[in-house]
Amino acid sequence: MQLMKRMQEMRNYIRETQPLIHCITNPISIHDCANVILATGARPIMAEHPKEVEEITAVSSALMLNLGNITDVRMESMRLALAQANRDKIPVILDLVGVTCSHLRRRFAESLLEEGQFAVIKGNISEILAVASLPFHGTGIDAGAEDAISGENQSQRGEVAKSLAKTLGCAVLATGKKDLVAVSDQAFLVSNGDPALSGITGTGCMVGALTASYLPAVSTQSLRSSIGTKGTDSEYLVGDSCAEAESAFSEWALSALLGVVTMGIAGEKATKDSRGPGSFQTALLDEIFCLSEEEFARKARIYPL
Ligand SMILES: Nc1ncnc2c1ncn2[C@@H]1O[C@H](COP(=O)(O)OP(=O)(O)OP(=O)(O)O)[C@@H](O)[C@H]1O
Ligand SMILES: Cc1ncsc1CCO
Predict the structure, then answer these.
(1) Which CATH number does the domain housing residue 102 bear?
(2) Minimum-distance ligand to the CA of 70?
(3) Mutate to test the pocket of ligand 1, among 36, 70, 149, 175 (most ligand atoms within 8 A of CB)
(4) How many domains, the chain?
(5) Ligand 1 binding pocket mutation candidate from 189, 197, 268, 280 (most atoms within 8 A of CB)
(6) Is the ipTM of this complex over 0.85?
(7) What is the number of the ligand closest to the CA of 192?
(8) What's the rounded Cα separation, in Å, for the pair 150 and 221?
(9) Which of 1, 85, 214, 222 gives a 20 to 30 Å CA spacing to 24?
(10) pTM higher than the cut 0.90
(11) SS3 letters across 184-234
(12) Over the stretch 57-74, which tens digit does the pLDDT of each residue have?
């Protein structure tokens, strides 16, 4: 099916079904993440007590794990929630916030990626290079300018993302001035957005939350058969589930494309009505909420790599 048409279907599905999205995330952008999930039509629940997260994940339609401002408690809760989501075939997005800033976070991300199955892994380009065990230049939670996707390195970055997607059996989303979305055999560049998006904190986290909102739109049947396809494209697949699993595998990428394009277009529109970061932040949430089907289709700038 045509990419744009399928994305519109997914947006409508979320508005109609209002799925519950469980988020274990940092306190800096937690409020913004909850609001962008609401703006898509989905319902957020931010919950992180280790004694309740399994119960909450079990009744949710997607799980978002965000490593920003990590604590012992959230690390424990993330492990428990991830295992529950994998048992129940609930799709999970891992946002690699700050894996460039400490060994602790890198080791924790590696252990989650080893233990669990993900629908999408996301980070700024430096964070993606870090989990691919390649040199990176990010400091703190920011991507390094040297790592940014450019005309010269975009095909190499595409190969890195595809290879990571293949190894992990998930879609990979790398954000920055240009965003990159990849599955094992396909990569797209997105050139929507505005520099003002890097002038407020948490826009990357919000892209993760938007992506999480759209994960439940991947059809249930395909979803069940595709989680657990780590390694090679078909290693864990048998018989008829193969074709369905492969299409679901690509649909995880559509959730990521929806997340990042929505943020990009909303950012472009929000700058027109704002005077600085304060009014920009308010306008951004309104634009995410108001983004029409027609405008999404007309303004999306997605290119195959
Ligand atoms: N200079 C820019 N021009 C256009 N779009 C941008 C620019 N900088 C960021 N964006 C957009 O902002 C969103 C967030 O990306 P970014 O890479 O800044 O995330 P991040 O570093 O993880 O953010 P945070 O840590 O604040 O949550 C993406 O949709 C991206 O396209
Ligand atoms: C500023 C900041 N520090 C840790 S997480 C976060 C929010 C954006 O990632």
Answers:
(1) 3.40.1190.20
(2) 2
(3) 175
(4) 1
(5) 197
(6) yes
(7) 1
(8) 38
(9) 222
(10) yes
(11) CCEEEEECCCCHHHHHCCCHHHHHHHHHHHHHHHCCHHHHHHHCCCCCCCC
(12) 999 999 999 999 999 999
